[in-house]
Specification:
The chain is of the alpha/beta class. It folds into 2 domains: 217 residues, 3-Layer(aba) Sandwich (Aspartate Aminotransferase, domain 2); 118 residues, Alpha-Beta Complex (Aspartate Aminotransferase, domain 1), CATH 3.90.1150. The chain has 12 helices and 13 strands. The strands form 3 sheets. It has an 8-stranded mixed β-sheet, with helices on both faces. Helix 1 packs antiparallel against helix 8 and helix 8 packs across helix 12. The structure holds pyridoxal-5'-phosphate (PLP). The site of pyridoxal-5'-phosphate has 14 residues, from helix 3 and helix 4.
Length: 352
């Protein structure tokens, strides 16, 4: 059996909650939706939380609530992310401007300084990519004096911390995803968190048939029940991910040509994706797959290339996309599978 790049871990609690909800007949807008929402608010240390049907929807609704609607509304995004980060801006009607990333694979704040001066954006979306937060103090320091809203894309960062504060509470608002691969998985789902009552009110109007037309973006009780238990288990599953990531770091540190992920001080990584770089990436990925290891590339294209978007020079991201690849790091992995991945990686990297 091949080792998949992603696999959620479900146990008795998730099984039981799904059955309980089915038997109760209350399959939407019930106690689990409320329970999950409350738990997620506490977990992210925020005052307001709305659950929605996906991370893309969370980004889109957040941007609409912030008033993004016309081409003059500029939103800064990093060059390396899942396409939803830029697509939400385009769908909302705004203009994305893409800037480079740094060695942390998150937004390079030096380019942010240049971009805010040149483009006068309304919103900046730092993405906490692969499970590590962006440099939030420096981003806030650039944005706050200019009244630019900071909208965290926390889709890959459940439980990640910056200076001991959780992702989701580090800017003005945040979007999360609970897609099947995520550290908290419901199949599909998302959330928007904020501490700002004005932003919260505007979000409510976009999702609860308020004072203008809105969409139905609700999750079901099944998703909320599963999500609730996933959240209770997150400290454990994140610990397992970290253990495997640290094993890889140790075992791969002397492999020729391989660049390991960098964990920055005061940024607690939750190892959503374990990314490496190597000049012979394509060969390595091909061989890993041949050996039954689900290696994948996150991401093959930069966002400005993907959507032909306005951008500052993005040399680092454009180089990284040709070298980057990921190997499985999820909590469903068994120790012997991790040992096999380590062994196989060593043989392949030494032979390419
Ligand atoms: C960084 C990032 N942003 C946004 C999303 C969109 O989330 P979803 O797939 O739930 O729409 C994802 C994940 O898929 C993501 O990884």
């Amino acid at each position: 059996m091949p080792i998949p790049i992603i696999k959620p871990v479900f146990g008795k609690e998730e099984e039981q909650v799904v059955l309980e909800i089915m038997k109760s007949g209350q399959i939407t807008r019930g106690k689990w939706t409320i329970k999950f929402k409350e738990a997620f608010k506490d977990f992210t240390n925020t005052a307001y939380c709305h659950t929605v049907c996906s991370g893309t929807t969370a980004l889109y609704i957040g941007l609409k609530a912030l008033g993004i609607s016309s081409k003059e509304d500029i939103v800064i995004v990093p060059a390396m992310s899942f396409m939803a980060t830029i697509d939400a801006v385009i769908l909302a009607g705004g203009t994305p401007v893409v800037i480079d990333i740094d060695e942390s694979y998150t937004m390079d704040v030096n380019f942010l300084q240049e971009a805010v001066e040149k483009y006068n954006p309304k919103v900046v979306i730092p993405v906490h990519l692969y499970g590590q937060t962006a440099d939030m103090d420096r981003i806030n320091q650039i944005c706050q004096p200019r009244n630019i809203i900071v909208f965290e894309d926390s889709a890959q960062a459940h439980g990640a911390k910056y200076k001991n504060k959780p992702a989701g509470s580090l800017g003005d608002l945040a979007a999360f995803s609970f897609y099947a691969s995520k550290n908290v998985a419901m199949g599909e789902g998302g959330a928007i968190t904020t501490n700002n009552p004005n932003i919260d009110e505007k979000i409510s109007n976009w999702i609860e048939f308020g004072d203008h037309p809105a969409l139905n973006v609700r999750i079901t009780e099944f998703q909320a029940g599963v999500g609730y238990w996933q959240l209770q288990k997150l400290p454990h599953t994140n610990k397992v991910r970290k253990k495997y990531a640290y094993m890889y770091n140790e075992e791969f540190k002397d492999l020729p040509g391989l660049i390991l992920p960098k964990e920055y001080p005061q940024r607690e990584h939750v190892w959503h994706i374990y990314t490496l770089r190597h000049p012979k990436r394509n060969k390595i990925v091909e061989k890993l797959i041949e050996h039954g290891i689900g290696a994948r590339i996150y991401y093959e294209y930069t966002l400005h290339e993907l959507r032909n978007a306005e951008h500052l020079p993005c040399e680092f991201a454009e180089a990284v996309k040709n070298e980057i690849f990921a190997i499985p790091v999820h909590a469903a992995l068994k120790e012997e599978e991790v040992a096999y991945i380590i062994d196989t990686m060593k043989k392949i990297v030494r032979s390419v």
